[in-house]
Amino acid sequence: MFDDALLSEIRSRFAHVDSCPFTGPRVFFENAGGALTLNSVVETSARFAAIPDNQGRSNAASKALDEIITKMRADTALFFNASGGAVMVGESGTELLFRLVQDACLGAKEGGVVIGSTVEHPASRSACARWADVSGRPHVLVAHDDATGQVTPDAYAAAVTDQTRVATILHTSPVTGMGMDVAGIAAAIRAKAPDAFIIVDGIQHACHGGIDVDAMGVDGYVISPYKVFSRHGYGVAWASDRLTALAHDSLVGGPSGKWELGTRDTGAYATFSDVVDYFDWLGTQVSDREDRRERIVAAGHAIHAHEAGLTDAMLNGTDNLPGLVDLPGVHILGGADNASREGLVCFWADGKPSGDIVDALNEEGVRTHIRKNDHYSGNILGPLQQDDCIRVSVAHYNSLGDVRAFLGAMQRILMG
What we know:
Blueprint: H1 4-11, E1 19-20, E2 24-25, E3 27-28, H2 39-49, H3 60-80, E4 86-90, H4 93-107, E5 113-117, H5 122-134, E6 139-142, H6 153-159, E7 164-170, H7 182-192, E8 197-201, H8 213-216, E9 220-223, E10 235-239, H9 241-244, H10 266-286, H11 292-316, E11 330-332, E12 344-349, H12 354-363, E13 366-367, E14 369-372, H13 378-381, E15 388-393, H14 400-415
Parallel strand pairs: 3-13, 5-6, 5-7, 7-8, 8-9
Antiparallel strand pairs: 1-2, 4-10, 9-10, 11-12, 12-15, 14-15
Organism: Thalassococcus lentus
Pfam family, one: Aminotran_5
Protein name: Aminotransferase class V-fold PLP-dependent enzyme
């Protein structure tokens, strides 16, 4: 885990790290709903909001904006480890998933099926349901394992055939908290359907580090920057050269390979460069690597290790505080001992409504979230016959002190 000095430096780079602007001091364990924002992103957003010039004009300001956009595309390709393809900015991560799935379904070879899994967020599942139907294909869902909260390469391999035309994969679940073996799943798909278009929902995974689309062997990867230390109002995606070559919504006579429609906010591009710069900086603190991509990779490893320490303390206790597994009537979604967990614990307690626990934690100054058996989380909670659960989601700027505050509050809530 990060030492106190580095963690203090990390926390100093984020806005509202220990205090809500509306309610005062609090611990922020709602990172899966939207991570804290880098101070650099706040400053960049304000600076670009005041710039009156548009891109593509014959003046110095406009050319500077064009250069900023070009830099962001290069930064993002490095962050994704994409040696080819195109980087695009859209309305949101969900909107970009719909666009990539649409183009894949409409551009793939005729016939066959679209395949995904039951663990997926409704963004990718809904996109596939719609565009599989429009393109006249069945939408096949691979079942996830209720006990572990994930879907495996073997499960995909059993369902994929040479008739698979489009496939979607969830990198990390925002409900179970478990990461999937994306490279393994993609390899299982390619073994039987080498020409299938494979699109990954990386929205929940991105802030935990470790994106490598070249190694994954996929055709699309989508994230939501507000969940990886940037701000709301835009999404970011990468599409392979062959996915980009398909027909997609664009202006007649416009440049080939261009995904964006209309003029996007240059500040959005600039703020994602801020995110990549932050990962690069963190890599300098946890490694002696000279290569920028290697520093980003090192940052991801360090983030994963720190968050694993936090969730282990949350589950098994720290100092003299019992962990969730030792509190009466607590059930851990996906199991307490699960190596695939990424910075998130979902649980419920017998005889205590989840909404009451979330409210009580708020009163104690600990921000969490309820997940309900609805269109967002019913695919996970429904098979468990569970109406709701409490989601506690950490990020690498959280501390063991935050975990102690949470466990102390839970002990008072459940044990009086």
